[in-house]
What does this fold into?
Amino acid sequence: MSVKLGVNIDHIATLRQARMDSNPDTVEAARVALSAGADMIVMHLRKDRRHIQESDIERVRREVRCYIHLEMAATEEMEKLAIKLRPDSVCLVPESPDEVTTQGGLKLSGKNDTLSRIIKNLSSRGMGVSLFLDPDPQDIRNAYKLGADTIEICTKAYAESWGKKNQEKELEKIQLASYLVKELNLSLHSGHGLDYYNVSPIAKIEGMECLNIGFSIISRAVFVGLKNAVSGMKSLLS
It folds into this structure.
């Protein structure tokens, strides 16, 4: 069975926001991605609204029949917006105002009542809840205790590693983490920095269910079109 593909359309909105215009349209992007084989549409609603806006999620929810996966920080503001916007699932991610992109997974050492409450509240409303984590066994165990149903492993270190030995080392960490995720009976997703050249080994990780990919797909779409970019990535996950 092929691994599912979540297509992140944040950077369709990035291009639109450069002119503060209505195009390119995220609704159209979602439709094209789905027609090319995407299994779900991913959007990250950031505090600074640098790309995706609430209206993007509202319109995709209203106008496109699809599974919506919302990435967001674990804050009260985002919790309220998730309840209002009704995505099918959310992924709680770390977020820093000065970062260009997410820099790694959540750190779950110690007690975290806020995170536990948010997970419980969103889960009770029918949303799947995943936590974006580095392939660290203790973080994964803590995520299980907090009530998450899915772990999304951050592949940043793997994607940025140079040389076969370093890449294999990072790949082994992810594989070992995946064994623990499945042992805890949680769903397993991965993402961050994945592209057409490094994605296949991650897709072959035992237990991998879904990869969430955005930047490399949208970048390739500039040259080959979004439909070809999505279908090309999807073919690498089988």
